[in-house]
Amino acid sequence: MKTFARYFLLQAPFKDLYPQQRYHYLIHSIPGDFFEKNLTNTEWLELAPGEDPDELDYHDDETLKEITESVLSVLQYKVDFVSILDRLFMKEDAACCGDFSHSKKILKQLDFPAAAQFDIFHVLMKKGGYCDCEILFNVFRESEYAQKYWSSRSW
Ligand SMILES: [Zn+2]
Asked: Residues 4, 29: contact at Cβ < 8 Å?
């Protein structure tokens, strides 16, 4: 297991990812049967160098449930977040870096403070958006980019 984690550390700026994002990435690089046999009931927190597990900050499900609706409606209707991100991806196809760098830039331009961004990204991850492109693919499926993506796939 250590090999996987270390390999991944070399691939991405781990500390800039939320713990849930790290989990999401790692879990996809582990063979399914191995996971089932050895890790099913493990509480798994991915730590960047220097991080203490007790200091990791994240929302529990109950909190997320309470804020999800308002967060999504703000992003979609009150500010231009979704359409800005959508336009960006329509212009520069496949510009996702596997993190929230574009979204963070947009939210900063829209004057969202850090605490609000924290809420926003935790809601988006809960909805399946673990990086910029997944925010469109999985959360805002009516976006132009998501429509293009889903319609180009044959199931
Ligand atoms: Zn992505």
From this structure: yes
